[in-house]
Specification:
37% helix, binds zinc ion, 14 strands, 8-stranded parallel barrel, two-stranded antiparallel ribbon, alpha/beta, single chain, globular
């Protein structure tokens, strides 16, 4: 099996201080948390940013501050979200691509998401695909439901995204596929043979999806974006607790942990820098 790429998703768009006082929301807090997770074995950071009040934002300045603070501390792979609310413009959602992170999230379809609807229309997906290709930023194809795999494969067949594809199975969202074993097995079989894949389970599916994925040869994502509890009813005080748990499970499975450089090789990506035009503002 390939060495294990551990992604940490420290913040997300939804987790609040009321839910967990330990969630990090501001650029320096996020960077310090990412650095601690990198020391513990994470090789990729999936980044969302928040405004001064802790609300979700697509502020390019916040992204830049966060990336700069992380880069001062470590060389971890940067993966920026392109997730947005229905009121966010498609241009705003695509702008993080221009910062040249190594990856951006690519939500490969629309679903009901909790009480709302997460909209990723076919024209938006085509535009985002073209943009990632233009800027040579690898899409991390987030799969919430089975049909999204076909959406991504179709875009690749039409030459809009480069192969091999990299998937992130997001299981357990209310409105998407659950984190049951049969779903994970189905998705692993459904993607192209040369694709790489990672998985995460939201909330109660967090541990089982992590254990199954490590045993099945996939990569894993954990963090307070997806789950705030280290054990039932016990809040994690840091994302590091989740990383340490993965490292332990990987050891039991005799799966080595990928370094940042090894993760870059596995995913076929190279480190890039924020273009100067953003830094002079
Ligand atoms: Zn995210």
């Amino acid at each position: 099996m390939e060495k294990l790429i551990i992604t940490v998703a420290t913040t997300g768009a939804h987790t609040t201080k009321e839910q967990s006082p330990y969630v990090c929301l501001h650029p320096i807090e996020i960077a310090e948390e990412v650095y601690a997770c990198w020391q513990a074995g994470a090789s990729m950071a999936h980044i969302h940013v928040r405004d001064e009040d802790g609300n979700r934002t697509l502020s390019i300045e916040k992204y830049i501050d966060t990336i700069n603070e992380i880069r001062k501390r470590c060389d971890i792979i940067i993966n920026l979200t392109t997730t947005g609310r229905p009121i966010d413009s498609e241009e705003e959602r695509m702008l993080p691509v221009e910062l040249l992170p190594e990856l951006v999230s690519f939500d490969a379809g629309s679903i009901n998401f909790g009480a709302g609807v997460f909209i990723n229309s076919p024209p938006f997906l085509e535009s985002l695909a073209r943009k990632t290709k233009e800027y040579n930023v690898k899409p991390e194809i987030e799969i919430f439901d089975a049909g999204m795999v076909d959406n991504a494969v179709r875009l690749a067949k039409n030459g809009l995204i480069d192969t091999p594809l990299h998937f992130q199975f997001v299981l357990g969202v209310t409105g998407g596929m659950s984190g049951d074993a049969k779903n994970l097995v189905f998705l692993k079989e459904a993607i192209p043979k040369d694709a790489t894949w990672s998985a995460l389970g939201v909330g109660k599916y967090s541990k089982s999806v992590m254990c199954m994925t490590i045993a099945m040869g996939g990569h894993v994502r954990v963090g307070m974006e997806d789950n705030i509890y280290i054990r039932k009813g016990v809040l994690a005080k840091s994302n590091v607790e989740f990383i340490k748990e993965i490292v332990q499970i990987a050891e039991i499975n005799e799966r080595e942990i990928a370094s940042v450089e090894e993760a870059r090789r596995i995913l076929g990506i190279q480190r890039k820098e924020i273009p100067k035009r953003f830094l002079t503002k």
